């Protein structure tokens, strides 16, 4: 899935409020400096005015997200020669990233743009220099949308879809979108290397005072329908486009198709505030888990809470009603099947958002010579269990000094509870009521309420080791680039608990919860791929079994799984067919 960084320029040296408070407790002589140079990954030329961000890392879990890490970071900018320097940095583990107009968000040590990079460890008083940060130039796609007669289609919505892993399954998610001009032309920028599908859709299909004209009674309602490049109404017949780094692709023209369409009418019922009624919208999405996205633009519901959606092609859909006003996220979904006639009297029942409270406790004592963990640096998150839920979110709350937390405005749906534990601690237990919910799905379809108890414990382990390849039996191993993963054995029910680090011929994974794991070293692999149970089973023989106890430090040796081996395995499982 893609990274949550929003790098920005504040000054050559910047300490955001959260980081400044922590650094104030660190003696000046123990604060660190990180300096390096930003370059163009394709040409090697320096990149000036790049926004450089140094942000606290997770403890070996999924790729970092600014919201979940409390925005603990530092920012800087590159000079005309591409050089940057960030001072007054608190010792710790960080991810370094850079952004610049015309370039993709790239992390230090990442195999590809928009992926997690290598953790940089700054020790007290360290001055780390000559850190290379290579930014990949964006790709751009241009083309035209025309109708069956070859005439330009003005105001068509053009969307590019990219393959993305979500909890071990492949999804096709929107990566970018734009509208055509009066000549039918479009331009899609900020594309990273990869395989894409492009679709075009005409306008808002909702019947409203300002919407499209209703069809003439008794005549077929023929309208433009979503069309994939170059001119297919189904994804299975669409043509994929391979995009290279920095590529300028032109002539990606779409001939939009028209078809007989129908209306979907109904009413939204349930517990709603007056402000909710004023901002109530409905939309349709295909009932296809590979496409967790809205098919139509959202349309407003009338004052009497009725709605009418025009221009719906035959198919299976989910009709979603929602309110997105401020922090309010209310959602209800009803399946709708459209055949060869209008669908009437659909009833969608809204459920108001809920709230959860809880307490985080820490057991045990820290290792000798290490400070006690700050419970306030823990975060309790509700992670959506279904792709569509990602559009509405779940909840994320920092813990108070007494260990309490509250998650407000929880949208009805299915979630997993995840906790970002402070360094040196691991999640021992998560309970909801009297039930163990660590790695298990919670269904809040009828509304969220109750208390979550989280128990953290001191005693994380560390797994260090070396990576070998068949071609580097002896001699220089500096050319080895690796992504090392620890996967719980057996895997957790929600495929969580995977630890990883990007590195070279050697690696170190810290803050590992005690338990049994299978360790792998890849030349490059996406985090979501490792959550696929079929993939885990297929490559199990390439792993090394590891078991660590509290406070244990273990050394292992791994053989590198090449990119070619990975591609062959994915092809065998049919996971790279689109």
Q: What is the terminal-to-terminal distance?
A: 17 Å
Structural class estimated from helices and strands: mainly beta
Enumerate the spans where pLDDT stays under 50 for 5 or more consecutive residues. 1-24, 63-71, 206-211, 472-477
CATH topology of the largest domain: Immunoglobulin-like
CATH superfamily of the largest domain: Carboxypeptidase-like, regulatory domain
Structural Rg:
26 Å
Annotation field: number of helices = 4
The top-level CATH class of the largest domain is Mainly Beta
Number of spatially distinct domains: 4
Mean pLDDT: 83
**Per the principal axes of the C-alpha atoms, what is the gross shape?**
globular
Per DSSP, what share of the residues sits in E-state strands of 2 or more residues?
Answer: over 45%
How would you portray this structure in words?
- It is a single chain.
- The protein has 578 residues and is mainly β.
- The chain has four domains: 119 residues, Sandwich (Immunoglobulin-like); 212 residues, Immunoglobulin-like, CATH 2.60.40.1120; 105 residues, Immunoglobulin-like (Sandwich), CATH 2.60.40.10; 112 residues, Immunoglobulin-like, CATH 2.60.40.
- A hairpin with a 2-residue loop joins strand 23 and strand 24.
- The protein is globular.
- The N terminus is likely disordered.
């Amino acid at each position: 899935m893609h990274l949550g960084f929003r790098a920005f320029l504040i000054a050559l040296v910047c300490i955001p409020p959260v980081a400044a408070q922590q650094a104030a407790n660190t003696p000046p002589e123990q604060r660190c400096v990180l300096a390096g140079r930003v370059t163009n990954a394709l040409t090697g030329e320096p990149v000036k005015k790049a926004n450089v961000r140094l942000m606290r890392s997770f403890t070996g879990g999924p790729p970092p997200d600014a919201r979940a890490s409390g925005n603990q970071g530092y920012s800087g900018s590159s000079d005309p020669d591409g050089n940057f320097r960030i001072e007054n940095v608190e010792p710790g583990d960080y991810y370094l990233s850079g952004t610049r107009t015309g370039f993709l968000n790239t992390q230090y040590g990442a195999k590809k743009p928009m992926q997690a990079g290598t953790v940089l460890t700054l020790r007290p008083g360290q001055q780390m220099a000559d850190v290379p940060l290579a930014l990949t130039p964006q790709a751009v796609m241009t083309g035209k949308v025309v109708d069956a007669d070859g005439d330009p289609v003005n105001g068509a919505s053009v969307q590019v879809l990219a393959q993305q892993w979500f909890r071990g399954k492949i999804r096709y998610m929107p990566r970018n979108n734009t509208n055509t001009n009066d000549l039918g032309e479009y331009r899609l920028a900020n594309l990273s290397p990869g395989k894409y599908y492009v679709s075009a859709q005409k306008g808002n299909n909702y019947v409203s005072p300002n919407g499209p004209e209703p069809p003439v009674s008794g005549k077929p309602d023929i309208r433009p329908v979503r069309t994939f490049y170059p001119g297919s109404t189904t994804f299975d017949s669409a043509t994929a486009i391979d995009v290279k780094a920095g590529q300028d692709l032109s002539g990606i023209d779409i001939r939009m198709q028209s078809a007989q369409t129908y209306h979907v009418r109904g009413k939204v019922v349930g517990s709603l505030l007056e402000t909710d009624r004023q901002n109530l919208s409905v939309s349709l999405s295909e009932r296809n888990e590979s496409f967790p996205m809205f098919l139509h633009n959202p349309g407003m519901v009338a004052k009497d809470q009725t709605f009418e959606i025009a221009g719906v092609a035959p198919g299976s859909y989910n009709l979603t009603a929602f309110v997105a006003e401020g922090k309010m996220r209310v959602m209800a979904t009803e399946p709708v099947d459209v055949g060869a006639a209008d669908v009437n009297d659909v009833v969608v029942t809204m459920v108001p958002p809920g709230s959860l409270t809880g307490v985080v406790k820490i057991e045990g004592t820290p290792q000798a010579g290490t400070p006690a963990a700050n419970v306030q640096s823990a975060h309790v998150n509700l992670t959506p269990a279904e792709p569509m839920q990602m559009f509405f979110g779940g909840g994320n709350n920092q813990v108070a000094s007494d260990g309490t937390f509250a998650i407000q405005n929880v949208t009805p749906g299915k979630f997993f509870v995840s906790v970002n534990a402070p360094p040196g601690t691991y999640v021992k237990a998560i309970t909801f009521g009297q039930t163990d919910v660590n790695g298990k799905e919670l269904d809040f379809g009828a509304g969220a309420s109750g208390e979550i108890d989280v128990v953290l414990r001191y005693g994380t382990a560390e797994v260090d080791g070396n990576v070998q390849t068949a071609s580097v039996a002896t001699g220089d191993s500096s050319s080895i680039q690796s992504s090392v993963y620890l996967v719980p054995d057996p895997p957790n029910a929600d495929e969580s608990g995977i630890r990883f680090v990007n590195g070279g011929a050697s690696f170190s994974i810290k803050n590992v919860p005690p338990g049994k794991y299978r360790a792998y070293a890849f030349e490059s692999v996406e985090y979501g791929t490792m959550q696929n149970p079929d993939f885990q089973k297929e490559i199990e023989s390439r792993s090394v079994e590891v078991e660590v106890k509290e406070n244990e430090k273990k050394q292992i040796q791994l053989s590198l799984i090449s990119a070619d081996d990975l591609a062959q395995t994915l092809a065998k499982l049919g996971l790279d067919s689109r």
